[in-house]
Design brief:
Blueprint: E1 6-10, H1 15-24, E2 36-41, E3 45-54, E4 57-65, H2 74-85, E5 91-95, H3 100-104, E6 109-110, H4 116-125, E7 132-136
Parallel strand pairs: 4-5
Antiparallel strand pairs: 1-2, 2-3, 3-4, 5-7, 6-7
Length: 142
């Protein structure tokens, strides 16, 4: 990464910046009320992700990197920052099968064991698209 990137937790009153970021990239992604929003700046927002509390851990959603910043380690930087920020809490996500290796390289593993709230969502989402459930936990004992 030649450029200077910084990871930042976004205050609730700044969420409109991420709504605009998603809209500018024609993304249908949304931010829920309970989600924490994290961004990478360079100095403007070049990536964003949401973390929602679930079952003593977090559900990672809405990860988007601006196309011109892809393949530069921006999304990896953001996820590694979250893993260090929440070292004692598991992180779950749903991804397209093509992204499994990306997440595996960050320590995520495929799982069939999800909190009830996520299990029902995955079942519903899989009716319309191919998704794989993955999780990250420092101890990998889930």
């Amino acid at each position: 990464m030649n450029q200077s990137f910084s990871v930042q937790h976004l205050a609730k009153n700044q969420r409109t910046l991420v709504h605009k970021f998603y809209r500018n990239h024609n993304s249908p992604m949304r931010i829920t009320q309970q989600a924490e929003v994290w961004v990478v700046r360079a100095p403007h927002i070049v990536a964003s992700v949401c973390l929602s509390p679930v079952a003593h851990g977090h559900w990672l959603t809405s990860l988007l990197t601006a196309p011109e910043f892809r393949q530069q380690g921006v999304a990896s930087l953001l996820i590694k920052h979250l893993q260090m920020t929440y070292p004692n809490a598991p992180i779950w996500l749903f991804c397209h099968p093509d992204l499994c290796s990306f997440y595996s390289n960050l320590g995520f593993q495929q799982t069939l064991h999800l909190p009830d709230a996520l299990n029902s969502r995955l079942t519903r989402y899989q009716q319309h698209k191919s998704l794989i459930a993955m999780f990250y936990a420092k101890s990998q004992e889930l």
